[in-house]
Amino acid sequence: MNIERRISELGFVLPDQAQAPPGFEFAFEWARVRGNRVYVSGHSPLHADGTLAGPFGAVPSKVTLDAATDAARDSALAALASVRRAIGDLDRISAWLTVSGMVNADHGFTQTTTAINGFSDVVVQIFGPEIGAHARTAVGVAALPMNNAVVVSAEIEIDG
């Protein structure tokens, strides 16, 4: 399977590397390869040029559940872009192992799983169920970096 072609067929575009907002520095790797694993840092949606795309704020008072779900989908594309930069070829991905999603949630918001489905659904859509299926956590938190509505990290297995 040619993953880059599949991404294009689905109408998706992988963004450039994340650009730090003024006065902020990213002091970590977006994707760290160790053996046959890729540890993917928490990603949020990015514009094509790598700038933060939002939405920003708590779900559902400031950001709708649908917008949060779309943000999770776009976080998957940002994560894939980082993985591609780390491993060169997305066809090397042999399994998505775990996904951890965090939603900037209002107190009592219980639909974090629905929001993070945006990430999971696009991964399975791109890679198919054999490679794309994964274990997952979706939690609500009081705040996220830069007031993002969604942040998602992952662990991926790759072929040598």
TrEMBL record:
It holds the Pfam family YjgF_endoribonc. InterPro entries: Endoribo_LPSP/chorism_mut-like, RutC-like_sf. CDD domains: YjgF_YER057c_UK114_like_1. It comes from the Bacteria. Signal peptide: none annotated. Residues 6-152 form the Endoribonuclease L-PSP/chorismate mutase-like domain. Gene3D superfamilies: RutC-like (3.30.1330.40). This is Enamine deaminase RidA, house cleaning of reactive enamine intermediates, YjgF/YER057c/UK114 family. It comes from Rhodococcoides kyotonense. The lineage of its organism: Bacteria, Bacillati, Actinomycetota, Actinomycetes, Mycobacteriales.
